[in-house]
Amino acid sequence: MHTAIVWLRLDLRLADNPALHHALQHAERIIPVYIHAPEEAAPWSDGGASRWWLHHSLRALAGDLRHLGSRLVLRCEPSLSALLDLVRNSGATSVYWNRLHEPAFTRRDNEVQAALRAAGVDVHRYNGSLLHQPGAILTKTGRPYRVFTPFWRACQQSPTGPQPLPSPNALPPVPAHLKSLELDELSLLPRLPWDQGLRATCEPGEQQANMRLHAYCQTSLPTYPASRDYPDRPGTSHLSPHLHFGEISPQQVLWVLRDYAEHAAGGLTAASESLIRQVGWREFAAHVLHHYPHTPEQPLDERYRNFPWDNDKSLLTAWTRGETGIPIIDAGMRQLWYSGWMHNRVRMLVASFLVKNGGIHWLEGARWFWDTLVDADLANNTLNWQWVAGCGADAAPYFRIFNPVLQSKKFDPDGVYIRRWVPELAHLSARHLHQPWGAPQRLLHDSGLQLGRDYPYPIIDLGSSRNQTLVRFRAHLSPDR
Ligand SMILES: Cc1cc2nc3c(=O)[nH]c(=O)nc-3n(C[C@H](O)[C@H](O)[C@H](O)COP(=O)(O)OP(=O)(O)OC[C@H]3O[C@@H](n4cnc5c(N)ncnc54)[C@H](O)[C@@H]3O)c2cc1C
After folding, report:
1. How many domains in the chain?
2. Ligand 1, atom 16, residue with closest C-alpha
C-alpha cells in the first residue's frame, strides 16, 4: 500500500488543494500533517492575531478531515524532523505540499526537499496559493514587473488554470499509532484575554470562507466599485484572512465571481472584475516578494536605503493605541486592535500618517500590523507599507501625503465609522467630528467633551509635519546629495 504525507501550511482547505488532490490520486493512504515551527519563519513568525486565527482554522480543518474519515496530525518541532519521523513510522514514500513564497519558507522548503530526497522520499510540489506562478509573468525583456497595471494586463493575457478542484468525498483513515499533539499544545491562543473582539468578529475555516464569499456576492458585490473606499459601509469582501491562510484559493474566488457575473442580471461584470483586480494586487505583491526577497526589511527603491527616519517612541505608542488625537487615525487603529482587521482606505491613511506626518520608519508600522492583523501577510503587508512610504513597487510618490481630515470628510462623511470606534466623540456633529480641535469651545462643552481630558489634542500638527516631511524627502532625493 502506497502511503503519502500531505504537508499542510498556508493551504488549510480540502477543496482546490492540488497537493491533497494529487496525493489522493497516487496513494491509498494519506497522512495530513500541520507542523508548527515558528522559528522557521523568523524574523516574521506569526503575530498574536495570526496565531489566534491559525488556532481556529486548524480546529475547523481537523473537524472537516474527521468528517471525511481522516485525522489532522499536529506536530510542534522542526519541520524536517517531524516529516522524517512520520516517514519512519508510517512507511510513507512521498511527501506532497503546495509552494509558499515567503523567503524564509522557500529556503526551508528547499532544504527539506533535499533532505527528504536524500532519504529516498519523493517530493511533489504544487502551486496552490496564486493564480500565476511567480516567475511566469515577466516583461518582454524577461524582467519582473515593478508596476501593477502592466503586470495585471500580462496576467489577464495568461491562462489562469482550469476549474478549481472539488473537495474529496471521503479520505482514508490515518493509522491510529501515528501520534499527534492536541491543538492546545501548540499554545497559539493568547494567555491574556485580549481576543474578545476577534471572537466577536472573526470566523476562521474553509466553510466560513466559502459562505462569506457567496453571502458577499449576493449582498454587497454589486456596489463594490462604488462603496469599497468607504469604511462605514459593508463594502469589501473581508476575504483577506481566508486567502492568507489558504482556506479559499484565489482560483476559487475568481471562478465564483465570474459565475455570479455571468448569471446575475446586468452590471455585475464590472463589479466582479473590480474585485478580481484587487486579488490581482495580492498576486502582484507575491510576485514582487518572490523577485525581491529582501524587501520585508529593505526598501525596493535603493534611494531610500539610508533615509533619516525619526525615532519618536511616544508618537509610535500613541499611534498603536489609537490616541493620536486625529479621529480617523484613532478609529482605524482601534478597529485593528479590537477586530484584527482594518479597512483598506484607513490602512492607507494610518500608514501615511505614521510615515509621512510622523516621519517614522515604515518597518515600525509594518511590524505592528504584523502582530495585530488576522490577515497579516508578508507579501501584502510589505508591498503596501512600501507603497505608502514611496519606496516600493508602483509606489505613491513621496509628495503624495494623505490629509486625514479631508479623507475622513470624504470617505466617512457622516462620521459613522469614527463614532463607532471613537465613542468619546459620538456626540459631536459631523461638521466637527473629523477635526475636533477646530470646534468652538462652547460646542465641545455642549457635547460633553473636553479636549486633553476626554480625547487628546492632535499629537502633531498635520500641516507643519507635512511640510517638514516634504523638505526632508526633497533633500534626501536631491541629486546634489
Ligand atoms: C499599510 C497596508 C498594509 C496592508 N497589509 C496587508 C496584509 O498584511 N495582508 C493583506 O491581506 N492585505 C494587506 N493590505 C491590503 C488591503 O488593505 C487588504 O487586503 C484589504 O483591506 C482586505 O480586505 P478585504 O478582504 O475586504 O478586501 P477586498 O477589497 O474585498 O479585496 C479582495 C482581496 O484582494 C486582496 N487585496 C485587496 N487589496 C489589496 C492590496 N492593496 N494589496 C494586496 N492585496 C489586496 C486581498 O487578498 C483581499 O482579501 C494592506 C494595505 C495597506 C495600505
Report:
1. 3
2. 344
pTM given for the model: 0.97
Q: Where among 230, 265, 291 does a domain terminate?
A: 291
| Ligand 1 mutation pick, 212, 252, 344, max ligand atoms within 8 A of CB | 344
Q: Which residues contact 198 (CB under 8 A, 6 or more apart)?
A: 49, 52, 53, 339, 340, 374
Q: Which residues span the domain enclosing 463?
A: 302-476
Same domain, 21 and 109: yes
Residue from 189, 188, 248, 173 nearest 15 by CA: 248
- The phi, psi pair for 106, rounded to 5°, reads -60, -45
When the pLDDT of each residue in the chain is averaged and rounded to a whole number, the result is: 95
Residues of the chain with pLDDT under 70: 265-267, 480-481
Residue appearing with cell numbers 516583461: 139
User: All 3 cell numbers of residue 19?
Assistant: 497537493
pLDDT of residue 263: 84
Give bridge partners of residue 360 from the DSSP assignment.
Answer: 310
Q: Are residues 275 and 336 in the same domain?
A: no
The pLDDT score that the predictor gives to residue 252 is 97
Identify any residues that bridge with 98 across adjacent strands, giving them in sequence order: 126
Q: In angstroms, what is the span from residue 342 Cα to ligand 1's centroid?
A: 9
9 plus 27 within the same structural domain: yes
CATH of the domain at 29: 3.40.50.620
Q: Whose CA is nearest to atom 29 of ligand 1?
A: 236
Which pLDDT belongs to residue 412?
A: 97
Pocket of ligand 1, beta carbon within 6 A = 228, 236-240, 243-244, 275, 278-279, 281-282, 285, 344, 347-348, 351, 369, 373, 375-377, 380-381, 384-385, 388
239 and 356 inside one domain: no
Query: ω into residue 43 within 30 of 0, thus cis?
Result: yes
**Atom 18, ligand 1: residue with shortest CA distance:** 344
pLDDT of 93 reads 98
The pLDDT of residue 395 is 77
Please give the distance, rounded to the nearest whole angstrom, from the Cα atom of residue 56 to the centre of ligand 1: 21
363 and 311 in a single domain? The answer is: yes
Ligand 1 centroid – CA 130 distance (Å): 15
Sign of CA dihedral 86, 92, 95, 96: negative
